[in-house]
Design brief:
There is one protein chain. The chain is α+β, with helices and mostly antiparallel strands. It starts with 8 loop residues before the first helix and ends with a helix. It has a domain of about 55 residues. The mean pLDDT is about 85. Strands 1-2 form a two-stranded antiparallel ribbon. Helix 2 crosses helix 4 and helix 3 crosses helix 4. The protein contains four helices and two strands, in the order αββααα.
């Protein structure tokens, strides 16, 4: 049996800043941390606003409306009514002129 050793906190902190523990198909691995890009373009801001509006519309909808979307999603073999609602809302919202 391998001998367990205590890892110094300084090493854990350093690894936590430079690497990310991830997994793929259940196999864990370390990968180097890469700072996510955020170009913050006008198109990206519009997309974020549209998504926020869609989420707010779902949250504001009553339980009966959400249940209808959940049933429609199930009939279509989709994962959830929430996802179907957001997809439909975003498609309609993007079609509106600014």
């Amino acid at each position: 049996m391998p001998k367990k050793t205590r890892i110094p906190p300084e090493l854990i902190e350093r690894i936590g800043k430079d690497f990310i523990l991830s997994s793929r198909n259940g196999v864990p691995y370390l990968k180097r941390y890469a700072r996510p890009r955020n170009p913050d373009t006008p198109a990206q801001r519009r997309a974020r606003t549209a998504l926020a509006r869609a989420v707010h519309a779902w949250q504001s909808a009553g339980a009966a409306v959400q249940e209808r979307w959940n049933r429609a999603a199930k009939e279509q073999g989709r994962s959830s009514g929430y996802n179907l609602f957001l997809k439909d809302f975003m498609a309609r919202d993007w079609a509106l002129p600014e």
